[in-house]
Structure prediction request, 295 residues.
Amino acid sequence: DGTVDYHTNKAEAMLPHPESTRLVTIIAHVDHGKTTLADNLVESNGIISERLAGTLRYLDSDAEEQRRGITMRASAIGLRHLYNPPKLAQKGNQVSNPSEPRQMVVHLIDSPGHVDFSAEVTSSLLLCDSAILVVDAVEGLCARTHSLVREAYMHQLVPVLVINKVDRLCTELGLDPTESYVRLRELIESMNAVCASMINSATLGRDGDSVACDERREVEEMAWNFDPVRGNVVFASALHGWGFTVPTLARSLFKTKTIPMKPPMLRQYLFGDFKYNGESGKVLKWKPSGGGSGE
Prediction:
C-alpha cells in the first residue's frame, strides 16, 4: 500500500540504518566539564545558539540540576554527524577506501559525575558502544576518574580521552607553552600508567592458555594506550567552544601553509620533545632543561 511505503520512507529519511548509528556516553569526575562539552556538541546541530553553548547546560533539564549546577540524572539527545572516512593513499593513483561521506546519528548520553549517582553512569555504559572520558587539565586524574576507567574496562569500552579546560593552564596557572606541554604530557603518562596497571591486574586474574592471555594483553595495552599522535586524545576548552586532535591540527597547519610539511609526517612532531625552526623549516630534537622548561 502506498501509505505504508510513505511512512516507511519517511522513517528511513529521519533515522539512518543501525550501522550508521552510534551510542556514546560522556563520563568524568564531577565538574570536569561533561555537560559544557555536551552543550557544544548540541550547538553543532543548531539546536542551541553558539552564544549560549557552554553556559546553558542544555542536557541538565531538571530544575534541581540547574539549581545545584551538577548533573543528577543521565540525559540523552540524538545528533546528526556527517562522517568523512579517511582517505589512505595506496600504490598508484588508487585510494584504499574511496568511501563517500555518510550521514550518521550519534545518540549522546550525558551521565552524572558525582559518586552518589554512579548507578546512572553504570546504566549509560551498559547501553552505549563507546565513551568519552573528560579530564580537567588542571585537576588531573581524580578518584572518580580511576573508578570510571575501571568500569569502562569492565564493560569493554575503550574511551576517547578529552583533556578539557586547557585554557586554565594559561589563565589560572600562568604557564607558558612549554610548561603547559609538560603538564599535559605528564597527565597523559599518568593516565596510561593507570590503564597499564589495570590491565596487568586483570591479566593476573585470568585462567587459561598463557599464550592466548599474552596476546589479549597486548591487544588491550595497544587499545588502552592514549597517544595524541594516534588521534585518541582531544585537547579542548568546552567553555570557549574549541577542541582539536593532533591529526586535525596537522591538517589545519598544512592547509593554512603555517608549516610546509605533509600532515602524516607533521603529526609525528606536534606532540613530543621537538621544536620547529621557522627560519630553516626543520624540526629539531628538544632537550628539556633541569627545570622542565625549554630554551
Remarks:
- Confidence is low (pLDDT under 50) at residues 1-7, 290-295.
- The longest helix spans residues 177-204.
- The two ends are 75 Å apart (CA to CA).
